[in-house]
Amino acid sequence: MKKTKVLWCLTVLMALATAGYAQKQLVLLKGEKVLLRLGFGDEITFRVKGSKTVRVSYVNNLFDTAVMAHKDIIPFHKIDRIYFKHSSFANRVGGFLVIGGAGYFLIDQFNTVVVQGHSASLDQSVNRVSIAMVAVGLPMMLIRKKSQRIGGRYRLFTADYDSPFYQHDLDRF
Q1: 19, containing H or E segment
Q2: CA separation (Å) from 109 to 82, 120, 125, 162?
Q3: Which of 43, 74, 128, 168 has most Cβ atoms within 10 angstroms of its Cβ?
Q4: Is 72 left (phi over 0), alpha (psi -120 to 50) or beta?
Q5: Which regions span the lipid bilayer (predicted)?
């Protein structure tokens, strides 16, 4: 009798543990690429169609076609824009250009002073190239897209545990 009660309790605890692990996630897709993934309690910043105000809330619950942000249920088709920081290939290229331009200048100065033994001087050709690399790379690195309009190739999706877009993340516990 005691063994069956213990086994029953262990079975119930295991079932509750898997149910807590299989929470839904709100996913922003571009085609089949995941741009943003939000779980319960994550902050969501969005704008509803026909409104100019940006609302900041948290994901309270997820349904198949809607999200509950705090106490409001907002259908996916009513969300006009989602605000989040994301980087692109141009941001990474800009960072490499800034690092490369500064590095090129510093390597030339190191070569002039340490290797050749001359005093520090500015070489015109090195200055032009390094300033051009930094001047082009800095805006590319700093200008980031802050929001994404929903529609067309961009859509919101509720990812269940069985979905290929679901991220099995154990760090949330």
Answers
A1: helix 2-21
A2: 46, 6, 13, 57
A3: 74
A4: beta
A5: 125-143
Please name the amino acid found at residue 42: D
CB 62 within 8 A of CB 131: no
One-letter amino acid at 26 equals L
SS3 22: coil
| 3-state class (DSSP) for residue 12 | helix
Whole-number pLDDT of residue 167? 82
Distances 4 to 11, 13, 15, 118 between C-alpha atoms, Å:
10, 14, 16, 87
**Global pTM?**
0.65
User: Is the separation of the CB atoms in 53 and 47 below 8 Å?
Assistant: yes
Q: Which amino acid is at 8?
A: W
Greatest distance between any 2 Cα atoms in the chain: 91
